Amino acid sequence: MGYVPHDYWKVPPIPVLSDARIRALKPKEKPYKQADFDGLYLLVKPNGSKLWRFKYRWLKKEKLLALGKYPEVTLADARRKRGDARSLIANGEDPSSVRKDKKAREEAENNANFSKLAAELLEKKRSEGRAEATLTKTAWFHRLLSADIGKMPITQIQPS
């Protein structure tokens, strides 16, 4: 038979899913999973939706990360997202908490528009007991600016 190298039996993981196979998956009475590899799988729900999930362990607990809905997120995109999440885990970060932090930062930036911050400033001046003339002038100035930059996030406002 001859010499067989030691690594001969170590076969790299073969992806189980393909685009054609995913399209052929039909819904059943109960949700079911169709695994790819390295924790990535497709959850097929009874209503026909196909959702990408990545299962991983963090601090000895099993966690689940939603990667999107098929076909909006293709197989290649799901594998890339899984790879990104695995690299975060390798760097000592929890992908779920990284995503939550990013979403909270974006939400805070979008909610911090000029009109909201101007209203907070006016309320602060009222609570400090500023003169009525100061409050009237500040309110007038804010109304004047709100027409142009009221809905802009505060981080996007630059001096002219």
Question: In words, what does this structure look like?
Answer:
The structure is a single chain. The protein is of the alpha+beta class. The chain has 2 domains: 6-106, Double Stranded RNA Binding Domain, CATH 3.30.160.390; 112-156. Helices cover 44% and strands 18% of the residues. It contains 5 helices and 4 strands. Strands 1-2-3-4 form a 4-stranded antiparallel β-sheet. It is elongated. It starts with 18 loop residues before the first helix and ends in an 11-residue tail after the last helix. The mean pLDDT is 86.
Gist of the model:
By secondary structure, the chain is α+β, with helices and mostly antiparallel strands. It contains 5 helices and 4 strands; from the N terminus they run αββββαααα.
DSSP strand tally: 4
Shape assignment? elongated
- Average residue pLDDT: 86
Looking at CATH, the homologous superfamily of the largest domain is: Integrase, DNA-binding domain
CATH class of the largest domain: Alpha Beta
The succession of helices and strands, N to C, reads HEEEEHHHH
Kindly report how far apart the N and C termini lie: 80 Å
Largest sheet: 4 strands, antiparallel
How helical, in percent, are the residues?
A: 40-55%
- Strand arrangement, major sheet: 1-2-3-4
Q: Ranges with pLDDT <50 over ≥5 residues? A: none
Strand content: 15-25%
- Rg computed from alpha carbons, rounded to a whole number of angstroms: 26 Å
Number of discrete helical segments: 5
CATH domain topology of the largest domain: Double Stranded RNA Binding Domain
CATH arch. level architecture of the largest domain: 2-Layer Sandwich
The total domain count is: 2
Structural class: alpha+beta
